[in-house]
Amino acid sequence: MSERDDDRPLRAAFARLREHEAKRAPALEQLLARKPSDARAQRLRWPRLALPLAGAAAAGLVWWISTSAPSTPGDRLATGDSPQRSEHTPQLPDDAPIALGSLRSPTDVLLAPPLASLPRDFSRSLIPAPRAPASARDEHHSLSSPARRFSA
Amino acid sequence: MTRAELEEALAGVLAVGRGWALAQTRWNAAEADDVLQASVLKVLDGRARFAERSSFRTFVFGVIRQTARERRRRALVRSLILLRPSASDEPAARAGFADLAPDARLASARESARLVAALEQLPARQREILHLVFYGELTIEEASRVAGVALGTARTHYARGKQRLRELLPDLAPTGAADE
To answer: What are φ and ψ of residue B108, in 5° steps?
Structure first.
């Protein structure tokens, strides 16, 4: 038996499949006139993607506006806003022995009083006093505290 | 070839070309029609040019295969972007056989459904070569050109595919072998 004879049942099965499918095949005109099914699917799919994208963009815009305004210290001064103090802002003790004790963050420099309004001996408070003998130092320390000085 | 000649030649291979498109889309009828339409348009508007180095049928089969591959790639990218299965993966999109099987008048449809189910179990290359030779009535050499494999490789796929198909569908075994 030749190979072609061996293949006869196989060929017959494929021929039946071909006949079956031939009934469904469209004519050339029909094929050219039809609207591709994926075009319909595209129309349905892209809005599904566009909506979440638009939502994410809107949320991003709101976040950006809320975190960036007012954007400069000048804006803060103009609007009268006080600078935000967070837990991370280094804070000086309230009894710091300098006139700039109100400076709590770098942005406070802009809010510091003008130089003319500072006391005359202001610069002296910035220069450390010469070290005194131990007995005198204790006394000095006891007087250097504003609270003690006030009570004295 | 003029457009009229192209249209006439295309009309002659349309039915068998649709079968090849079905095989390329794993028997998804809607997808197959899209592939066939895109392929025909490529041929008519000159994006795919028939150089007459092979038969027109071989050329059209090659265009259909290339188009189906492009669409599969695009569908994969789209499904990755949208994180959802592509249309060809959806069971509802598979048209043709399962719904026809209960009808007793369509015995040939049941037979065809069995053959398609068996073909689906073969490796892609074997499935392609068998389809091109038995359904598309190409020679093994022409099938090798369409599938883009060497002739020897195509012969191997052809022999192994036939053997596997006969194991899956014993009634397709040679008559002499069935008697033994």
So the answer is: -65, -30
Q: How far is A31 from chain B (nearest CA, A)?
A: 6
Q: How many CB atoms lie within 10 A of CB B89?
A: 13
| Residue A148 or B69, more confident | B69
Q: What percent of chain A has pLDDT over 70?
A: 33
Structural domain includes residue A37:
yes
A23: nearest CA partner in chain B: B15
ipTM: 0.81
Query: Are the Cβ atoms of B175 and A8 closer than 8 angstroms?
Result: yes
Q: Which of A31, A40, A53 to mutate to probe the B interface, most B CBs <10 Å?
A: A31
Place of tokens 């037979």: B111
pLDDT at A29 over 70: yes
Verify that A96 and A56 share a domain, yes or no.
Answer: no
Same-domain pairing of A99 and A135: yes
Q: Structural domain tally of chain A?
A: 2
The Cα B15–Cα A31 span in angstroms is: 11
Determine, yes or no, domain membership for A75: no
Residues 6+ apart with CB under 8 A from B48: B39, B42, B59, B63, B66
Interface size A-B, in CB pairs within 8 Å, comes to 97
B171/A5 Cβ within 8 A: no
Write the DSSP assignment of B46-90 as a string of letters.
TSS---SSS-HHHHHHHHHHHHHHHHHHHHHHHHHHHTS--GGGS
Same domain flag for A49 and A99:
no
Range of the structural domain that residue A116 is part of = 92-151
Structural domains of chain B, ranges and CATH numbers in brackets: 1-95 (no CATH), 97-171 (1.10.10.10)
Please provide the average confidence, as pLDDT, over all residues in chain A: 67
pTM of the model: 0.59
Burial of residue B58 (CB within 10 Å: 0-12, 13-18, 19+) is buried
Q: Which of the four pLDDT bands, split at 50, 70 and 90, describes residue B40?
A: very high
